[in-house]
Design goal:
- The complex is a heterodimer of chains A (470) and B (331).
- Chain A has helices at 20-28, 31-48, 76-100, 105-108, 114-118, 166-179, 181-186, 195-205, 228-238, 294-299, 323-331, 348-356, 382-394, and strands at residues 9-11, 14-15, 51-52, 63-64, 67-75, 140-149, 152-159, 216-219, 241-243, 248-251, 254-259, 262-266, 268-271, 304-306, 338-339, 343-344, 361-365, 374-376, 399-403, 409-414, 417-426, 428-431, 435-437, 442-445, 461-468.
- With 470 residues, chain A is an alpha+beta fold.
- Chain A folds into two domains: 9-339 and 405-468, no CATH class; 344-403, Dna Ligase, domain 1 (2-Layer Sandwich).
- The longest helix of chain A has 25 residues, at 76-100.
- Chain A is globular, with a radius of gyration of 22 Å.
- Chain B is mostly helical and 331 residues long.
- Chain B has two domains: 1-153, no CATH class; 155-312, no CATH class.
- Helices cover 76% and strands 0% of the residues of chain B.
- In chain B, helix 6 (105-123) packs antiparallel against helix 8, helix 9 (157-187) packs antiparallel against helix 16 (288-311) and helix 13 (242-256) packs antiparallel against helix 14.
- The longest helix of chain B has 31 residues, at 157-187.
- Classes of the chains: A alpha+beta (470), B mainly alpha (331).
- Chain A binds chain B through residues 46-49, 223, 232-233, 235-236, 241-244, 246-247, 249, 251-252, 256-263, and chain B through 1-6, 94, 97-102, 105, 108-109, 112-113, 116, 157, 161, 256, 258-259, 310-311, 313-314, 318, 321-322, 324-326, 328, 330.
Chain lengths: 470, 331
């Protein structure tokens, strides 16, 4: 039986040092008061309209992501280590993307099999040889990290396409400060509220050459997208326009938006829409969400996109196993953050191992995201495992498998009271002229007992994340 | 600002205003129904109300009888009636949600809270159980929405498009209320002038636009239809008069002026000038109904012009717009 690491308690009776102040405070709160605050939080979230849409569920078009008032606390030293690891990892990923879309040294030197890249659904041949500002492809990365023990962190996924959740990080903090201002007097909690400023700065820094006062916009697929709240939120916080594809058009090899004062030039597009939908002339012709001709302007370097087209090839689950090699190859450094050992079912021996150990492994679809299309072996029934086995056998190259990690837990309010629940952490790493981030990130928590799936689309909740300054 | 954003703001304000005016009309009608009157007169009152929004055929297709409960159901909550209060408030909120980043947090939260409370009121059958309370609530939320806008928004283009929507919708609604009341008054067997029923009739009209006390203040006299018409059409200081609304429209159009909006400004300016220099006697000579019909047509056209100048400038005309932006011969 593996021992599960709890963020708050080192054993049943002992609170870890960085949680002591909080635990003492919590023990002084009358139970009704805590319950009342929880109800208050839900009411505020609903009034503020911090909601998300769950796909395939018409009845509840807008839902709240459950918010838990017990914070996830990380002490400053531990965070410093994480931060170093994140900078290293994201730097390497950007170098990798630049290499892939230029010389492809990493392929030539045999570190990664070329077919893994060139036949990857996320590889965009249209980007080959194209220069992007500051050689940055993944301007915003949401790296999912879990803890399996003391000082033992693993990266689960590098989300380099359109990672979301940062608005919840910010709103959770605002909520905690509103509900428990006294907690912030007692603890030295590193602030995160400047994230939109960092983001805007970062986006402006990657404007096309020769543009001194760039116009930045946030591009959304529209208000029925599950992350629409976040798109609107970030646009508002940065003070930039929130546009949809229909609001923009291409003329004179530039992108313009339609305003009440006529066309206005757009220089940097923070797009929250997948590559495939960006330009119906270049990618999916049936996309009504994109801007016809956008790719040509982008290729000419006359508009910047964040993240770059084709960045997804670096966060694909089939490429994930190579990230430590990338760090080695581009930076000549040892990886600071661990990768989870990964079995690639496209390999014969890995497939055999996977099929023999399905009940112990987590199996993921290579191109999947959001916790859809995955199997958590230990939590699945025999029938579920057998059904999944058929899918893997039919298309082995579409799957990877990983050992089920003993994800750390944190006390969380559930119906029966306080109980440990598994969680992860998604810091948001910004790359432009430099690599920056705010301390912490979004902590997601699986609300079902024993569940390891924290995705909000699968019923996960969130917590405020505190980095305690010294 | 983004044209689509302006469009959402404009319609957010229009739907909020429309919900308020619908609540006002219903409220007054419900109060009037408390007065002693024949069943026929009561029915006529409800019919007139449906006539304001040109909704009688739609109503008749759904309900067997013209009763207070049916009309309230239709106008307050019916999901198939695009002008029902529930649909207007939902549309206002959906428009706000589409541009929530452009609104101050307070404005958005007000629109959202209105919508959330609406669900509770509909569920709790407030429109059926205490219609007066429900209409009061709708008016109050509209006041709040307007007040929060005035009190928190930067007075930039976003603000202007919200105001423009409010003024235009209000001009339309006031004209309709007036038109239908006068038509109904002509249609019924006139009571003796100055008699009680007539007093209540016009007093109700004034109350529906919050102008009863104002009438007394302005005229210090008994209530006569001519003066009611004069007040609601021509008085520049009455916030819901056609004149005041057009003042607002013209001033706002000036604030948002762009390269192609000169004709629209001229159109609005003429409409305002006509009101400014009109005498009520001349209007009545032309016939109030024909005057107001003409006014409503103008408001409708003005809405169309605003839309094509600012809100959907390139709808169906992408080629035309591109030839404007790319004068270098890109065809």
């Amino acid at each position: 039986m593996t021992i599960i690491f709890d963020e708050m308690y080192s054993d049943a009776a002992t609170v870890r040092p960085h949680y002591r102040e909080f635990a003492a405070w919590l023990s002084r709160q009358p139970p009704q008061a805590v319950e009342q605050k929880r109800a208050e939080a839900e009411l505020i979230f609903r009034r503020v309209g911090i909601t998300f849409a769950v796909y395939g569920d018409n009845a509840g078009k807008e839902r709240l992501i459950p918010f838990d008032i017990i914070p996830r606390i990380i002490d400053a030293d531990e965070w410093a280590g994480l931060q170093k690891g994140l900078v290293q990892r994201v730097t390497a990923l950007n170098l990798f993307l630049h290499d892939i879309y230029h010389e492809q040294r990493i392929l030539k030197e045999g570190i990664i099999p070329p077919e893994q890249i060139l036949q990857n659904a996320q590889y965009r041949a249209a980007m080959q040889g194209i220069e992007v500002a500051s050689d940055i492809y993944a301007h915003i990365a949401g790296v999912d990290i879990v803890r399996a023990g003391e000082g033992e962190f693993y990266v689960l996924e590098d989300n380099l396409r359109v990672p979301s959740g940062v608005s919840y990080m910010l709103e959770n903090r605002k909520m905690m400060m509103r509900l428990f201002p006294d907690l912030f007097e007692r603890n030295r909690i590193a602030p995160v509220e400047h994230y939109p400023d960092l983001l805007l700065d970062n986006l402006r820094s990657v404007a096309p050459q020769g543009i001194s006062d760039p116009t930045v916009v946030v591009m959304t697929p529209g208000m029925y997208n599950s992350a629409y709240f976040e798109h609107a939120f970030l646009a508002q916080q940065m003070g930039v326009a929130l546009v949809q594809g229909e609001d923009m058009f291409v003329a004179d090899n530039r992108v313009f938006m339609r305003t009440t004062n006529g066309p206005e030039r757009v220089d940097v597009i923070y797009r929250r829409i997948d590559d495939d939908y960006l330009d119906p002339l270049a990618f999916r012709a049936d996309s009504t969400l994109g801007v016809p001709g956008l790719l040509e302007v982008y290729r000419a370097g006359r508009v910047s996109l964040a993240n770059a087209i084709g960045a997804g090839v670096a966060d694909d689950k089939s490429i994930y196993p190579f990230v430590p090699d990338m760090i080695n190859f581009y930076l000549s450094e040892r990886p600071i953050l661990n990768n989870v050992p990964t079995y690639q079912c496209r390999k014969k021996e890995d497939l055999a191992f996977t099929l023999a150990h399905l009940s112990e492994l987590v199996v993921k679809e290579v191109h999947g995201a959001g916790g859809y299309g995955m199997l958590v072996g230990p939590a699945s029934s025999k029938a579920e495992i057998e059904a999944f086995r058929q899918r893997i056998v039919a298309r082995p190259e579409g799957y990877i498998a990983q050992p089920t990690l003993a994800l750390s837990t944190c006390p969380t309010f559930v119906d029966s009271g306080l109980a440990p629940r598994h969680l992860d952490l998604r810091p948001f790493v910004l790359s432009g002229k430099t690599v920056t981030m705010v301390p912490g990130g979004l902590t997601r928590v699986a609300l079902q007992e024993g569940s390891l799936v924290v995705n909000s689309s699968q019923g996960g909740g969130t917590k405020d994340t505190w980095i305690l300054e010294k | 600002m983004l044209s689509r954003t302006a469009d959402h703001l404009f319609w957010m304000a229009r739907y909020t205003e429309r919900a308020e005016n619908t609540a006002r009309m219903l409220d007054v009608r419900v109060q009037n129904a408390l007065l002693p009157q024949s069943a026929l007169a009561a029915e006529q009152g409800w019919r007139a109300l449906l006539g304001i929004s040109e909704l009688e055929p739609a109503f008749n297709a759904k309900y067997p009888a013209l009763t207070q409960n049916n009309v309230i159901d239709f106008m307050a909550r019916n999901p198939d009636n695009p002008s029902s209060i529930a649909n207007c408030l939902t549309a206002a909120r959906e428009n706000a949600r589409a541009v929530r980043g452009t609104l101050t947090t307070e404005v958005w939260e007000t629109e959202n809270a209105t919508w959330i409370e609406l669900q509770q009121h509909l569920k709790g059958k407030l429109p059926e159980n205490s219609p007066g309370k429900f209409f009061e609530w709708v008016k109050h939320r509209s006041h709040l929405s307007r007040g929060v806008t005035l009190g928190t928004m930067l007075q930039d283009d976003a603000f202007s498009f919200i105001r423009l929507g409010t003024f235009l919708e209000r001009a339309d609604n006031t004209a309709r209320i007036l038109d239908v009341k006068f038509l109904a008054a002509q249609g019924s067997d006139a009571d003796e002038p100055g008699g009680q029923p007539e007093f209540y009739y016009w007093a109700a009209l004034l109350r529906s636009v919050s102008a009863f006390e104002i009438y007394r203040k302005v005229y210090r006299d008994v209530i006569t239809p001519v003066r009611v018409a004069e007040l609601l059409i021509l008085h520049p200081k009455l916030p819901r008069s056609l004149m005041a609304c057009m003042d607002g429209v013209v001033a706002t159009l000036e604030d948002i002026r762009n390269d192609i909006s000169a004709d629209t400004e001229r159109f609005a300016g003429k409409l305002r000038a006509e009101l400014q220099f009109a005498r009520i006697e001349d209007i009545l000579e032309e016939g109030l109904h024909s005057y107001l019909t003409r006014f409503l047509e103008c408001i409708n056209e003005l809405g169309g012009r605003i839309s094509s100048d600012f809100l959907v400038p390139m709808a169906g005309g992408q080629e035309q717009s591109q030839s404007q932006t790319a004068p270098d011969g890109r065809s």
